[in-house]
## 1
Amino acid sequence: MFTYREASIHDAKAIARTEAASKQASLVGVIEFMTPEYELDYDQLLVKWKGYIEKTRSPRKSKDPRIIFAAFDGGLMVGFAACHHSSKWGVESELQSTYVLKDYQRQGIGTHLFELVVDWVRAEGIYSMGVNLYSENPYRQFYEKMGGEYLRSSALLWKDLKKWTL
C-alpha cells in the first residue's frame, strides 16, 4: 500500500535521489541526448530541489505557490510530482516534474500523483496546466493518456481542468 503526502524540505534528499535513479533506469538510450550531465548529478539535483522547496530557485516563468507531492512505499520515496503557478504557454500552472522509480512504475503511482496535482491546481482556482517534454521522452504516452494536448513538439497542455477526468 502506497502513501502520499506533500513533501517538505526534509524530503529534498529523497527527491534528488528519486529523480536521479528514475532518469538513469528509465531513460536508457535517450538520456544522453535529452539530459545534460548536471541533471543526473545528485548534488546538483539536491541544490535544485532545495531551492525549489525553499523558493530561492525558480523555473522560468514560475510563480508561487508551488507544491511537491511524494509517494512512499513504507519509508522509501518511490515517486514525486512538482507543480507551480506559471504564465508559460498561456496556461496558469506548470507540472514541473513527475518521477517514479522504475521498479514502481505501472502500479498507478504516477496517475495518483497526477490526480493530486490536478486537485491542487483546481483548489488554487486555476484550470489550465502545461508540461514540457523532450520529443524523444518515452513517457510522453503517460501525459497523452492523461489528456494533454500538444502545443508544439515539446509541450502538452490541459486547457480546461474543470472538465478533466481520467
## 2
Amino acid sequence: MTNRPEGDARAARNARREAARQRAQRARTQQKRRQRGVRLGLQIGLGVVLLAAATIVTLVLVDSVKPAGPGPSTMSQGGITIGQDLKPVTAAASGSTSASASPDSAATAGAGTVRITLYVDYLCPGCGQFEQANGDYIEDLVDSGAATVDIHPVAILSNRSQGTKYSLRAANAAACVAEHSPNQFYAVNQALFAKQPDEGTPGLTDAELTDVVTGVQGLSERSAVRSCIADQDYAKWVDEQTTAVSEGTIPGSTLKEFPGTPLVLVNGQRYELTSPVTNDDFRTFVVTAAGATDATPTPTPSATPSPTPTKR
C-alpha cells in the first residue's frame, strides 16, 4: 500500500513537470511564430526592394530607348543654314542639307553660291580659335549674300566639364534659339564663343548660359528660350545628333569618319586648321574652294542675283 504523503509528493512533481512541459511548448510555439513573422517580414521587405529595383530598371530602360523627339523646326539633319542678312534660309535656296521651316523671304532671295559648313562644340578650344579668327569674315560673306553657312552644334566634349555636360547644355541652348528666335542664331553662336569657358572647367551654369543667350540684342520669345534652356528641351536630340555624327553620318560631307571639332567645309572641301589659326589662310582656302581669286563679298542690289566671291 502506497504511503499517502509519498503519493501526494509524486503527484505534485508530475504536476510541476507537466506545467513546465506546457510552458516550454508555449515558448516553442511563440518562438516559431516570431520566426515565421521575421521570415514573412524579410520576404515582404525583399519583395518590396526587388519590386522597386525592377521599377527603377524599367524606367531607366524605357528612358534610354525613348526617342529623342524632333529637333528645332529650322534645323534639318542637325544644322541650321544662315544666309543673306543673317537669316535662316531653305535647303532649296541655299543648296545645303539644312532647312528652315519659315525662312525670311529676303534671306531666301539672297542665298549665295559659296557654302560653308561648320560642326562646332561650344567647349572646343579649336572652335573658339577658328571663330575668333574667322567669325567676322564669315559674317560679312553671309550677310552680303556671297555665301551661306550651315552650323551644326554638337556635344563631343560633354565629359570634359567636370560632370556638368557643358557642351550638351550649350548645344541645347543654341537649338532653343534655332527654334524660338532663329533670326538671332548667328549672333547667339558668336556670343557663346565670346563667353566660351576653358575645357576641363565646369563651364557656365544654366543661369549664366541663359544670360549670355538672352543678352543678345533682338532675341525674340525670351521666355520660351529661357524655359527651353532650363528644361533642356533638345538635349536628347543633340545627344542623338552627336552620336550619329561621331559614327560617321556627317551631312554636307563625303567623309566617312568624323575628324573632330571644328570640322570646317567649304563647298564640301575640308579645311584643316593651321597653327595659329589665321583669317588669311582660311580666306585663301575659301577663294580656292569657290574657284575665284578673292573671297571679299561684293554687295549688289537685291533685284540682281546674289554675288559670288569676286576680286576686289
## 3
Amino acid sequence: MSSKDAINLALEKELDLVLVSPNANPPVCKVMNYGKYKFEQAKREKEAKKKQKTFEIKELRLTPNTEEHDFNFKLKNARKFLEGGSKVKITVRFRGRELNYVKQGEDILNRFTEELSDIATPEKRPFLEGKNMFIIFSLNK
C-alpha cells in the first residue's frame, strides 16, 4: 500500500500510522491508537518491575578486637537480616596500628562463616581492601 493510502486510511479510522520497521524494504507501518499502545507498554513495564526481586545489602562493622558479647550480638543481627531476605556484608575495620592484626580480622570473619554455615554461604573469601576486610553472605537456597 502506498504511504498516501495508508495515511488516508489512518485518518479515516481516526487512528495513528506508526512506523514499525523503518529498515525493511518497503518500510512497515501499522494503523493503531498510539496513545493506548504507549500506556499499555508502560503498564507492562511497571508490572515486570513489581515482580522483580531486589537484594538489599546490610552491613555490619567490627574491629579486630571485638569482644564475645558484641560478636554474638552482631551474629544475631546477621541471622535476622539473612532470614529477612537481605545479603549481609561483614566488615572488619582496621584503624591506625590495628592494620598489624590482619590475622585477627580474618579469624573473626572465618568464625562468622562457621557460625552462619547452617543458613548462609559466603560469596567470596574474606579479602583486604584498603583498611577494611570484608565478606558477603547470601542465604542458602
## 4
Amino acid sequence: MIDFDSKIPFENRENDILTVGELVIDMVYEEQVTLSQPCTYKQFFGGSAANVAINSKQLGIRAMVAAAVGKDNLGDYLLNYLAKACLDTSFIQRVDESTSMVILNKSQGTPTPIFYRMADYQLNYTQTLAQTVARSNVLHVSCWPISMEPARNTVEKMITLAKENHVLISFDPNFHSLIWNPKESKAESLAYIKTMIQKVDIIKPSEDDAERIFGKGKPERQIEKFLQLGARLVIMTLGKDGVIASNGSELLRFPTLATEVVNTTGAGDAFWSGFYAGIIKGYTIQDSITFGGMASAYKLKSISTVADLPKLERLMELYHIKHGEVIA
C-alpha cells in the first residue's frame, strides 16, 4: 500500500523516468466527424509512452523513452521531434517494418482510433536498455508493447530487472482489443493484462480502460478489482468527473480542473506526467495526483496530442495551486 500523504524516497540516480511503449504517427481529423466521412487530417507526433516522456521533461524532470520505429521518413520525423524536445534518442530502435500509425477523430469525448501497427512492437531487449532500467527511478509501461512479441518479452525482462533494483513500476492499462495479438483471444489478452497488474506498483486506468478490462461497473468497484489483482495504488481518471484514487485503505476524490476541452487525445499522458513530476520533486502522492489533473487540464485546451507544458512550478501558479490545494 502507498499512503496518500507519503513521499516516495527515490535514490540519486541518473534518470527519473523511463517510459516503454508506443512511438507512432497520430493522424487527427480536424473536424469533429466520424471517420467514415471525408475529412482533412493533420499529422502529429504520437504514442502514449513517448508523450509521457516529453511532457515529463517539459515539467522539469529527467525522462527517456524506449520504443521502435521504422527506417522510413515517418520514423525520421518522430526521431527529429524527440531531438527537438531534447530527449535522448539512444533507446529508439530502427527496424525494417514501417512506422506505426493511428488515425483519430478530433473529439471532446473518447476518440475513435484506427490502428496500423508495424514497427512499434519490434522492441528488443538489449544490454543498454537493461542498464538504463537500473539507472532510473521509475519504469513506466503501456499496454502496447506487452500485446505482441518480441516487445512483450522485452518488457517482462525489464520489469524483472526493475524489481531487483527497487525501481517504481507504473502501468498504463490502455487496453484495446484491436492492438492485441490476433493469435490470442480476448480472454487470453485480458488474462495476461491481469498478470501484469500483479507486478506493478501504480496503475492509472481511465474509466474506458477499466470497462474494456472488467466490463461495465461503478468506478469504485472497478478500482477494487485492480487492487485485488495486486496494484498498490490505483488512480482512475473520470473525464469531467475528475479523478478517484485508492490505496486499498482509503479512497480520495479529486475534482476536474478543466475549463476548456478542445481535444482529449493525450490528456491521460499529461496526467501521468504531472503525477510523475510531483513525486520526483518530493511532493506527496495526494499533491501529485492534483498536479496530474492540472497537467491534463492544460493539455485539454490544445489540439496537439502533446501539449507544450511549462515547468511544474509555473503550471502551479497558472492554476493557483500550492501544495496540491487550489488557492481561492
